[in-house]
Amino acid sequence: MNGIIIINKEKGWTSHDVVAKIKKITGEKVGHTGTLDPLATGVLPLLIGKGTKFSKYLINHDKTYEVELELGKKTETADSEGKIIEEKEVDTEYISQNLENVLQSFIGKQEQIPPIYSAIKKNGKKLYEYARAGEKVEIEPRKIEIYNIELLKYEENCINFKVSCSKGTYIRSLCEDIAERLNTVGYMKNLKRLQVGEFKLEDAIKIDDANLESIKEHLITLEELLKENNSINLNKKKLQLFLNGVKLKVSNTDGLYKIYDEDKFLGTGTVKNGLLKRDIIL
Fold it and tell me: Distance from CA of residue 87 to its chain's centroid?
């Protein structure tokens, strides 16, 4: 079984828990393209079997989230898991008048400072390890892009919004920054991931519903995953050379290609400067 399955992760499950369960069901090697915090829910793409080799092509996906931001309270982890470290008054009239403009002001390319409670490494040590040890550390900003923010609801000091953003965006930091521009503090109360690249929540299965039959039914094959990529069909002589690691002269433009032996999908190859090189073979 080789391909990708989209899981609708529920609250309380770690990404590792989900991987372990699918691995037990399928008996295959299983991996993911990026963790989803235990308190977060939604889309978690899992790579199964030789699909794990395709992770390098799936790590730069844009993402879409549904977010609940609670105003007036700041936590040490910037989410509902941490203890409250600050409380501040919320001017509901000011927020009602300025909320739309504030949200729209975050659209575009920008630099964002990640939360201290994150797995980003600094000098070989994860940031959350510094935080737990009470050590101060300088956190470098990262370049991100917010493509769109849509206000869904605002009531009782809670803002619900949908955001589409680039890889590397920390929604916890975004929530704190939005609260600051609204002259208060805030934290990410709930997070649901709606989409990762082309993988959508409506195509996902719940982890509790996952069994061998449902996984096979919803499995996205590697050939389907690469449906937008062009293909190269090799004759037997060239195929043998290709499989042995020999670079073949081709007239194709640079890029990633699906490789076929007649009608049989074999895997991928990359073309660079007129040479086809073996990439991932199933």
Answer: 31
Q: Which residue has the higher pLDDT, 32 or 44?
A: 44
* Residue located via tokens 């917010």: 146
Percent of the chain residues past pLDDT 90, beyond the cut: 65
Which residue out of 17, 37, 91, 208 is catalytically annotated? 37
Contacts of 210 (CB under 8 A, 6+ apart): 5, 7, 21, 22, 25
Please classify residue 81 by burial: count the beta carbons closer than 10 Å to its beta carbon, then call 0-12 exposed, 13-18 middle and 19+ buried: middle
pLDDT over 70 (residue 131): no
- Is 209 one of the annotated active-site residues of the chain? no
Model confidence, pTM: 0.86
Distance CA(135)–CA(52), nearest Å, equals 37
Who contacts 186 (Cβ-Cβ below 8 Å, separation ≥6)?
69, 70, 71, 72, 73, 74, 159, 175, 176, 178, 179
Q: How far is CA 173 from the centre of its chain?
A: 16
Q: Is the pLDDT assigned to residue 140 strictly greater than 90?
A: no
Neighbour count for residue 60 (Cβ, 10 Å): 11
Does 56 have pLDDT greater than 90? no
Domains contained in the chain, CATH given: 3-59+198-222 (3.30.2350.10), 63-196 (3.30.2350.10), 226-281 (2.30.130.10)
